[in-house]
């Protein structure tokens, strides 16, 4: 194929590419307006972030107050339960004392019954026989003395039983008093626990609300921060991604050596440069841009054309494969594919062009100096 046909096809591809370029990229005035809108959005987002921070602080203060109330209630209940434990211990002591006194009383009662059992036959016999039962005065005197001794023991046993009954009554009264204190203390504790439970339920409900609000706030905040980050990134990039600001400092599309020079007036005409490189070398974008062409052009093999805004284009030809799609936005140094067979290099290589307003410009004036 003649060089003129190749040029025609290349110009057709670039014209087609131009028709695919978004207007926002082609018109700097609209870009400036978009930048102003993004600045305004960023300012609004910063205001929302401040409001969210104030709301978050207020919620944290409320939570702190509720936590303080919870701690005070728990301390109060802990003190009440300690007092109740003392009362319970004293109540247990009196229960043991009551059991001991009851055992002594039962023992005294058994002794009294035994003495009464001894007196009853004698008393019954005396009432039945009268004075006739006495064989002599000596016998009567001995019986009288014995009977008197038994009656004295009975009176003593009765006194012991009476005192023990009084002691039991005192112990029972103290037990009832302690039981009343226990009931009162439990009532206070249960009331405090009920109040604490209500506080806990209220706190849990509030915490649920706060947690939901906080999650919503954090989500909003994260979204705003991401938006601001993205806006800042876009603003910086919009300002810095001006192709004409990178003259003589663009990276090379592929590592290698130049085998054909830029010479549009030569015969044959060369509108770009040819770079010989190693097999499988990665071809990369020299600047941020959008893929506007990704197809095979006869005589140039697989070709990728990028639009960089401001009517600047870059072309990469003789690729063995392509890793980007039409319409895709690419970063600077992003892989576009791999170098294929380039006839001018008699091996692997890439043909590279730069164009401004559809006119070829010398890539060597825009690329960084070769090392």
Task: Summarize this structure as a short list of keywords or feature phrases.
about 375 residues, alpha+beta, Helix Hairpins, Glucose Permease (Domain IIA), 10 strands, about 15% strand
The low-confidence runs, each spanning 5 or more residues with pLDDT under 50, are 1-5, 12-28
User: Biggest β-sheet: count, sense, barrel?
Assistant: 10 strands, antiparallel
Number of strands: 10
CATH architecture level-2 label of the largest domain: Orthogonal Bundle
Please identify the structural class as seen in this structure.
alpha+beta
How would you characterize the overall build of this protein?
The chain is α+β, with helices and mostly antiparallel strands. The chain has 2 domains: 55-223, Helix Hairpins (Orthogonal Bundle); 246-365, Glucose Permease (Domain IIA) (Distorted Sandwich). The chain has helices at residues 3-20, 23-26, 28-129, 137-240, and strands spanning 257-260, 273-276, 282-284, 289-297, 301-307, 312-322, 329-330, 335-342, 347-356, 359-361. Strands 1, 2, 3, 4, 5, 6, 7, 8, 9 and 10 form a 10-stranded antiparallel sheet that branches. A hairpin with a 4-residue loop joins strand 5 and strand 6 (312-322). Helix 3 runs antiparallel to helix 4 (137-240). Mean pLDDT is 76; it is low at 1-5 and 12-28.
